[in-house]
Amino acid sequence: MMSSQQFLYAVFGMAAVMVVFKVVPLLFFKKKIKNKFLNSFLAYIPYAVLTSMTFPEIFRSTSSVFSATIGTIVAIAIAYCGQSLIVVILSSSAVVFIVEQIMRMLAN
Fold first, then answer.
1. CA distance 16 to 72
2. What are the angstrom distances between the C-alpha of 23 and each of 12, 40, 43, 54, 74?
3. How far apart are CA 26 and CA 33, in angstroms?
4. Residue 99 in contact with residue 71, Cβ under 8 Å?
5. Cβ of 99: how many Cβ atoms within 10 Å?
6. Which pLDDT score, from 0 to 100, does residue 55 have?
7. What separation, in Å, do the N-terminal and C-terminal C-alpha atoms of the chain show?
8. Distance CA 59, CA 67 (A)
9. Distance in angstroms (rounded) separating the CA atoms of residues 57 and 4
10. What is the pLDDT of residues 80-102, one digit of tens each?
11. CA-CA distance, 70 to 41, in Å (whole number)?
12. How far apart are CA 40 and CA 43, in angstroms?
């Protein structure tokens, strides 16, 4: 269990990292960045980081790799169709829940 002091250190550490990544570019880049490659690179960094942090945990967060795989396939398909993030999250979570309930019924 995390103590209150450790929690505060973690919060201040995350705040410091966020400030560094938000303020430092403002100090160094006075003009607007006109390079298309650099703009697209900087635009996709948050998505790449979020994906690399979450994707491995998808397969450890459920009781079965099978249900996680089905949920991932559904999430990718719904996102590919252009639905919003909340629709993708709720739909894939519901599919994982249903698949796990079916697997539980078949095991009994």
1. 33
2. 16, 20, 17, 26, 38
3. 11
4. yes
5. 19
6. 83
7. 36
8. 9
9. 26
10. 999 998 999 999 999 999 999 99
11. 31
12. 5
What was the pLDDT predicted at 79?
A: 94
CA 79 to chain centre: 13
- Looking from the CA of 15 toward its CB, the CA atoms found within 13 Å total 6
Rounded Cα–Cα distance for residues 72 and 89 (Å): 10
DSSP state of 60: T
Under 8 Å CB-to-CB from 6, ≥6 apart: which residues?
none
**Residue 14 token pair:** 């995350």
For 68, residues 6+ apart whose C-beta sits below 8 A from its C-beta are 58, 59, 61, 62, 96
pLDDT single digits (tens) 12-54: 888 888 888 778 777 877 788 788 888 888 778 777 777 887 8
Q: Which residues contact 79 (CB under 8 A, 6 or more apart)?
A: 88
